[in-house]
Specification:
By secondary structure, the chain is an alpha/beta fold. Helix content is about 35%, strand content about 20%. The protein is globular, with a radius of gyration of 15 Å.
Amino acid sequence: MDKWDRRFMDMATEIGNWSSCWQENRHVGAIIVKNKRVIATGYNGAPQGITSCADKKECLRKKLGIESGTRQEICYAVHAEQNAIIQAARVGCSVEGCTLYCTHQPCVICAKIIINAGIARVVYKEGYPDEFSRQLFEEAKVTLQKYDELQ
């Protein structure tokens, strides 16, 4: 494993700790990197001006009994990957050809956004029950690598 992959995944993990998600197992962090430089960061949390789950002291998905990997739209949080891409756009940084490091495998919604943003490689730490996102990455020829399997 490359020392840079380790450094960037450590950063993504730390950024995930900033999450405003009520469920600790859902603290997700992401960073976008180009030429060993961090372009943008993101973590999962409520949009600006919306009360977070942590502040509400409950998870809407858990309250409604929504199974992991399904109905991603029923959640107050914007996903970490989405927030990183949005942050790059807000400051005018292209993510074309970049690598995205994420603590969790992206869901299908994030996969579509990542593909259209032009990100070339995704490295993730934890799995996610979304085989369709993996299929989309493969078809779009975006490299998807599990962190602990890097050589």
